[in-house]
């Protein structure tokens, strides 16, 4: 039974209890005036109070509205992201000494094998990789590289030169990107 | 004389507009910690993200730029000079 179904069931139960309360209703008498108490509801007007029935109806309506207005949970989809980094010209890089980070850390980081990476993770259905990830960044003491996934996707869609090589319903493949080397002062 | 100098002046102006990639490293002025994985913007345009060591290469024409660095939920404003120097420039982020 899903969360939404439970809320609908509770809402139905509240309506049933409210109906029973209406059948068995008692009028509450104000002890000071000896008159039946009245409450005023917006749009409805003044009513002789029957709190149990009213409370059940109000709670039931609220729960039904909450369940109806909640977007349906569509579950997750498995995504695969592949790409690779190239060393600067004339240099070699021990890729495994570095760190690959996926921002903002929706996916677990992975180790690079020969500069290649394959990232796997789940994303809520209806969303794309670029909705949940902003950048893929490789860092090592003297080199670093980054793929700004949002920018590359926009360029790819616009038909411009992009690091994004292919784009599928639940996968992305990036072209090799040469890492930047950093010279310490 | 002016006609002869004109191509040279135009070439100089054109060369000054060529983008150079200056390596920059952002660190927290208080703790000395690297500003890792921070969003770097110049004139509200995303330049990129720093790496684990707070480093990023910024490709812009030479000049001074207002730069914002989003690090640990705080946005730091710094003045960045792009000079074409290939050495890593260390910039401290002060609160």
CATH class of chain B: Mainly Beta
Q: Number of DSSP strands of chain B?
A: 7
Number of strands of chain A: 11
Task: Return the CATH architecture of chain B.
Answer: Sandwich
What's the CATH first level of the largest domain in chain A? Answer: Mainly Beta
Rg calculated over all Cα atoms of chain A: 30 Å
What structural keywords apply?
heterodimer, A: 185 residues, alpha+beta, 2 domains, rod-shaped, B: 95 residues, Immunoglobulin-like, 4-stranded antiparallel β-sheet, 1 helix, 52% strand
Describe this structure in words.
The complex is a heterodimer of chains A (185) and B (95). Chain A is α+β, with helices and mostly antiparallel strands and 185 residues long. Chain A has 2 domains: 3-69, no CATH class; 76-181, Immunoglobulin-like, CATH 2.60.40. Chain A has 4 helices and 11 strands. In chain A, strands 3, 5, 8, 9 and 10 form a 5-stranded mixed beta sheet that branches. A 4-stranded antiparallel beta sheet of chain A has the order 4-6-7-11. Chain A has a two-stranded antiparallel sheet with strand order 1-2. Chain A starts with a helix and ends with a strand. The mean pLDDT of chain A is 83. Chain B is an alpha+beta fold and 95 residues long. Chain B has a single domain, classed as Carboxypeptidase-like, regulatory domain (Immunoglobulin-like, Sandwich). In chain B, 16% of the residues lie in helices and 52% in strands. Chain B contains 1 helix and 7 strands; from the N terminus they run αβββββββ. Chain B has one helix spanning 2-16, and strands at 19-28, 39-42, 45-49, 55-61, 63-71, 74-82, 89-93. Chain B has a 4-stranded antiparallel beta sheet, with no helix packed on it. A 3-stranded mixed beta sheet of chain B has the order 4-1-7, with no helix packed on it. The longest helix of chain B is centred in the N-terminal third of the chain and has 15 residues, at 2-16. The model of chain B has no long low-confidence stretch (mean pLDDT 85). Chains A and B meet through strand 4, strand 6 and strand 7 of A and strand 3 and strand 4 of B.
